TrEMBL record, chains A, B:
PROSITE patterns the UniProt entry points to: COX2_CUA (PS50857)
Metal-binding keyword on record: yes
Location, primary (coarse class): periplasm
One term of GO molecular function: cytochrome-c oxidase activity
Record localization: Periplasm
Any one annotated GO CC term: periplasmic space
InterPro entries to which the protein is assigned, alphabetical: CcO_II-like_C (IPR002429), Cupredoxin (IPR008972), EfeO_Cupredoxin (IPR028096), N2O_reductase_N (IPR011045), N2OR_C (IPR034205), Nitrous_oxide_Rdtase_Sec-dep (IPR026468), Nos_propeller (IPR041114), NosZ/Cyto_c_oxidase_sub2 (IPR051403)
Pfam families tied to this protein: Cupredoxin_1, nos_propeller
Annotated keywords: Copper, Metal-binding, Periplasm
Organism field: Sulfurimicrobium lacus
Record keyword Metal-binding present: yes
Gene3D superfamilies reported in the protein's UniProt record: Cupredoxins - blue copper proteins, YVTN repeat-like/Quinoprotein amine dehydrogenase
Domain Cytochrome oxidase subunit II copper A binding positions: 512-621
Name listed for the protein in its UniProt record: Cytochrome oxidase subunit II copper A binding domain-containing protein
Length: 730, 730
């Protein structure tokens, strides 16, 4: 490969990351989509992006925010009645069972508009958005407790809990931070706001959190910056926030006993603010559920070790990583031994007495993740643009690797669970100055894949991120995920309930009531039923569409031209679009997802008549086709059937039942051939009446179904040939 | 690599596609983003996606549709006053000079809402959207003439040109198709609708087009399906469109002499309809600029050979590809020899007399592209799920390759220009059933990269497309693209003019006029000026932000929490966000693009006071810092300076000027150190007055600039070490 100027090490990296056609990536990563407001799903080690999931931003490909079902989810995120059509997603979290990823749910926060979203990993769709009623900003979400009882969300820039204006001069007295514990109900797959609560915190800028596990289960840890409580004002000649917020040598790690906090709420010790239970600081102090420990300058990550015994904090303006001992912390709390109190009366523990060790790693340490090997951790060094591998038991540095450039978070496989999987590490770099082909002033981000399976780390791959700046990513073993490929026919995928618009084949209809036109329609290769929809100017048009396909990946789309509606209708799903027919005219509609050879012909017309339009008596269209046309088409069909029979002959001659994808294809082809029979019956009916026009057209329809069946059959044949199918019975 | 189960062929493919860190992809591909409404930019051969460009759909990461400048572009796409917030993009086209890609502009169409967009490849931003005033639907855009004089856009589903309701029974008489020639003005980089025109066509479903080149320059070719003019109505018992639109054995290839058509318009022979010049069919026939040729059943692609002599058409319900001879066509036209006329009086040429050859390729041929080697073409076979390599001069099949599954378009490098570049082919597959880790019922698409440099085609790579279904893609040699990395300070990137909101450092200000609050602000690592913005409920707030950075990739973002505004402000750009301060309260704002170690501290507050709020006299905040704090910070700074000096010492000791990226970094670091000097001066000023509070904070600010300079210096040092810098002068 000298032609391409590759080194031996490049070739090794290529071999370690290449996933051949049909192969599967070992891990599936879920990255926040940053300012895109979405979630990015990619495979490791190939670093190929599999999907952008619409979460906080409308996304037409998925119909997200365009169909009525998903609009209901998106609009749960309105704030004080205002529509928010984007989000600044930061930290995704996978649901856990006993401290390990279970592959069921994903949570993601919105920093710009304090919200959390729930994504169901059965179908990779967003099912719920909750708005934090207290905060104006939150960066430190989402983090889950070991059994996903709660999803943790911390505020960032302090603001009054009230929705009132309070001058900045009252910052210390009336601005507040906080940590919210959102109760997650695994059965319904939803957050229950009524069972959720917040612990009031001082107006420090709370940042990331982590939940304790095993020995430290029941506690959570949240760090902070700007405990100086500095208020900027560069426009008035004051130093900016960046100076005033980085003046002190330490900030505070917050420790909260969330299990006890939940009990306090049950005991009625919380105060309702904006509809949420809040444990006020004085209560939290009095009940002994809230403590502070100094932590080095402007920290970012706080990360509990897999055994739950140690807590790693990196202060980005300090060159050390600090490892706190949960035991040492507990011993001080038990002994009531506190160094001081903060201005709000919260007990402050001794940093020195809480530390297990401190390790000098380099400039700008940010975030730590763990290896499958005991005592091994990896920390990102922002200013040094390096990943440091180090031993947190013994407090020594083991290896360093240069990355390009300015790494933020890093992530190891399942690296924040009780059982990290090792093998790979991803560096989430903030700059991509000279890494890729140029695409203008706005650059992609750069995630670098690093092999950590050996003593020395090895850089494997540079992955551009084409849309949004992911702040954090989590990765799960791909085999733990068990998403579906179709819905039960007639499902509203956002509620997982049967849709009121669900329609079976043959039961399509249009219901008119006053100014309302409600269409119960279906989609199947390759037509939409009905093909003509009539309305009058001013009508409210509602179109329900059920995808009657059962075949994998046989998604249909739908739009009505110039009406700003779009739907993605996956197999079995029922989707509803709604709009006002506000202009008279002729508006084509069509399937927007390429589904079959006759996809372009999957069309119809919405006809919007002016008010009070009088029907003009129309002349029956002249017949175009004759018996000769009919005979010709029938002959074609008979010939086509011979081809199909030969393919079927091949398939049934081998052990096709040993190949589940082929069994699914055979099912699908059988469906198509059954439909062919129906068309043939209609053809025969017309031919009997010598209606050669319709007989010819139904013969054509019969042929269309044959073509689809042949297409599927050929796919099955190719699959069998490529996967070494053997003669049946051998 | 047996551990990963790779074959020798896999390893070869890995080596052929792997691009090591810092390497560049040889080709840059621009794919339509399908229903996402965007453009997808990816590299070949690595198949890594570099960017999604916002075109028809708002996209917050880029601020597209969120800032005022881009909203103006997006809103050019309103139809009859209605906001359209998505598009169904289909066929991208790169601008050409003398029939070859010049890397300057990109055009893309919207099928669902008949529109065209212009993207400037200097910054990869959408600059213009035009709405077709005649069509309701268009699939066959964009295609350019050899010098990009015109961008060709054909209608798809016929509809009346008038915006009136016309019953389907009047389909033949009043529904129409058409081809629009949008005049492109390269100097302004915009389409000029006033100089554009349309040729009226029968109500066939016009599909794709291609412009003639060299001998056939001046002509364009547009094919069609459903020349049956069938109107469906499955809900009334009629056969569906798919049957009626595929009944005939041939459809029509339309040939239009666009050069002569442009002259006819100048001669006043066009009719103004909805503000556009339209050459009516009877004029087109009379003037001899419009002809039809039969083409096999339901074609998709029409593709002129690199030498302009032949035109390839694939009818997807025919197993042949048909190659027409431009010479033979011209001979017939010259001789006035026509086979018949269509129902609208358009002369129909003999198919037989026009054909150069027909080749039996397989089931479902769709689209053809050309190789750098003479006479070699590649055609996608939808039903067979294959790519066929064939010789169009001699009319013989050379090779076939299975793909997965159901290929739509295919694309070779610059394969529709006069000088195709060969080497790679991309298969745009419509299904990705069993190719990737599962991500729910909605699957990614699958682009497969194929090596065509040797006799036998070789499959190299499967690329999932994570967002939208690309219909077509074009690829250009990466080195032909010359995008910028920054704007001239104060540029409105959507107009490429100086912004009225442009603001220099030190000239930031807030201008209040009645209910309007206009902020002229700046962003630079790591603060926003101003840091406090005050308004009253009901005020219209306008915030202009200029990014003062010159460094590559130093983009800042901006949002005001819960106000649904977002901006991406690349180096030099000025961006404006606007909103009504409709609720009282405290609203943090911050930089949304991770830019520096103190990025999280790049924050401020919008304070919205209730109407008639009376200022409360505030107490001056107590000083927190003492002379001891000041001295300590100064000592830190002096120590830090020593580190910086050592890095600078290293850089200047080697031949850093030979490395342009390092020269840019040194410029940036020098900027930061100059700012450090300014902060230091402010510090000394405060210290002189024994104002230890502000002296300490400005000392901190000095240090912040040092940290940024150190960060940049370390990046430069690493780069030099990794790129073999040598002692200066050696």
């Amino acid at each position: 490969m000298k032609a391409r100027g590759l080194t031996q090490q490049n070739l090794l990296a290529a071999a370690k990351t290449y996933v051949p056609t049909g192969g599967r990536d070992e891990f599936t990563a879920f990255a926040s989509g940053g300012q895109s407001g979405q979630i990015i799903v990619y495979g490791i080690p190939s670093m190929r992006i599999m999907k952008y999931i619409g979460v906080f931003t409308p996304e037409p490909w998925q119909g997200y925010g365009f169909d009525e079902e998903s609009k209901k989810v998106l609009r749960q995120g309105n704030i004080d009645g205002k529509e928010i059509n984007w989000g600044d997603t930061h930290h995704p979290a996978l649901s856990e069972t006993n401290g390990d990823y279970d592959g069921q749910f994903l949570f993601i926060n919105d920093k710009a508009n304090p919200r959390l979203a729930v994504i169901d990993l059965r179908d990779f769709e967003t099912k719920q958005i909750v708005v934090n009623p207290l905060y104006k900003s939150e960066h430190g979400g989402a983090f889950v407790t070991p059994n996903t009882d709660y999803v943790i969300e911390a505020s960032q820039y302090p603001a009054p809990y009230s929705k009132k204006f309070v001058p900045l001069e009252r910052f210390n007295e009336e601005y507040r931070g906080g940590v919210t514990y959102w109760k997650f109900d695994r059965k319904s797959g939803k957050i229950d706001p009524k069972q959720s609560f917040t612990v009031e915190l001082p107006p420090y800028s709370q940042d990331l959190s982590d939940a304790g596990k095993l020995v430290s289960d029941g506690w959570s840890f949240t760090n902070s910056f700007c405990t100086e409580r500095y208020v900027g004002g560069i426009e008035k000649g004051r130093p900016p926030y960046e100076a005033g917020c980085s003046a002190k040598d330490t900030d505070y790690l917050h420790m909260i006993n969330w299990k006890k906090a939940a009990e306090l709420v049950k005991q009625g010790k919380a105060k309702k603010i904006n509809g949420m239970d809040v444990i006020m600081m004085d209560t939290a102090v009095k009940e002994g559920i809230l403590f502070l420990i100094p932590e080095p300058k402007s920290p970012h990550g706080v990360d509990v070790t897999p055994d739950g015994k140690l807590i790693t904090v990196a202060g980005k303006l300090d060159s050390h990583v600090s490892v706190y001992s949960f035991d040492k912390i507990m011993a001080q709390i038990k002994a009531g031994k506190f160094e001081s109190k903060d201005p709000y009366g919260i007990p402050v523990l001794s940093m020195k007495d809480s530390l297990h060790t401190q390790v000098a790693l380099g400039l700008g340490p940010l975030h730590t993740q763990y290896d499958s090997k005991p005592c091994i951790a990896y920390t990102s060094l922002y200013v040094d643009s390096q990943v440091a591998k180090w031993n947190y038991c013994e407090g020594k540095v083991l290896d360093k690797l240069n990355i390009h450039y300015n790494i933020g978070h890093l992530m190891t496989m399942e690296g924040d669970t009780e059982h990290p999987k090792g093998h790979y590490l991803v560096a989430l770099n903030k700059l991509a100055i000279d890494r890729f082909i140029p695409v203008g002033p706005l650059h992609p981000q750069n995630h670098q894949l690093i092999d950590i399976s050996e003593d020395k780390m090895q850089l494997l791959y540079d992955m551009p991120l084409p849309l949004g700046e992911p702040h954090y990513v989590v990765a799960i073993k791909s085999t733990t995920l068990k998403p579906g490929i179709r819905y039960k026919v007639g499902t509203d995928s956002r509620t997982d309930e049967p849709s009121k618009g669900a329609t079976r084949a043959g039961e399509e209809r249009v219901v008119r009531k006053g100014k309302s036109v409600e269409v119960f329609g279906t989609e199947i290769r390759s037509h939409i039923t009905p093909e003509t929809i009539e309305a009058e100017v001013g009508d409210e048009v509602t179109i329900h569409l059920t995808n009657l396909e059962r075949a994998e990946d046989e998604t249909h789309g739908f739009t009505v031209d110039t009406y700003n509606v779009h739907a993605s209708v996956e197999p079995g799903k029922t989707v509803t679009v709604k709009f006002k027919a506000d202009r008279e005219g002729v508006f084509p509609f069509y399937c927007t997802e390429f589904c079959s050879a006759l996809h372009l012909e999957m069309e119809g017309y919405l006809l919007v008549k002016p008010k009070g339009y009088k029907e003009v008596k129309t002349v029956e269209a002249k017949a175009v086709y004759t018996k000769a046309d009919y005979d010709k088409q029938v002959k074609t069909n008979v010939d086509t059937q011979a081809v199909i029979d030969s393919v079927v002959g091949y398939i049934t001659s081998v052990n096709y039942k040993d190949f589940p994808p082929v069994v699914a294809l055979v099912d699908d082809a059988t469906d198509q051939l059954n439909r062919a029979k129906e068309a043939k019956a209609k053809m025969e009916d017309a031919a009997k009446k010598s209606d050669w026009q319709n007989a010819t057209l139904w013969a054509g329809q019969w042929w269309q179904y044959q073509v689809k069946a042949a297409d599927i059959g050929l796919r099955a044949k190719t699959y069998l040939e490529e996967h070494g199918a053997k003669k049946a019975g051998k």
